[in-house]
Amino acid sequence: QVQLVESGGGLVQPGGSLRLSCAASGGMFSFNVMGWYRQAPGKQRLLVATITSLGTTNHTDSVKGRFAISRDNAKNTVNLQMNSLKPEDTAVYYCYAFDPRVIPSQYWGQGTQVTVSS
To answer: Is residue 31 very low, low, confident or very high in pLDDT (cuts 50, 70, 90)?
Structure first.
């Protein structure tokens, strides 16, 4: 059974950096798409960034130039380097994986809290 396990969240001051990591276990293949979503209190879960197995990336406008997603297909991991963090980046960050070749086709991690505050 596939599981996604995140790490790297925490408390950071505005302008600081954090690196989130997510490891997928239980699968014998590299997911077609992996990524990160975030959910602030009382708000919907929103896309942050995705990356395909070929390395094509997509970042939501609010994080472009500050966040960078990367992955290691051999290790089935995806990372999110977050720089110049702002208080509005505070949220629970969820790892996401999708592949149409398997059922179910999408998976979520348990979430990791990121708090940006002075």
So the answer is: confident
